[in-house]
Amino acid sequence: MPSSKHEVRFPGESDYYRAARDKLLDAESELRRAIESVAAQRRTLPLGGEVPQDYPFEEIVGGNGNASKRTVRMSELFADGKDTLILYSFMYGPEMARPCPSCTSIIDGLDGEAPHVAQRASLAIVAKSPIERIREFARERGWRNLRILSSAGSTYNHDYQGENAKGDQMPALNVFVRRNGKIAHFYNT
Question: How far apart are CA 144 and CA 69, in angstroms?
Answer without folding.
Answer: 18
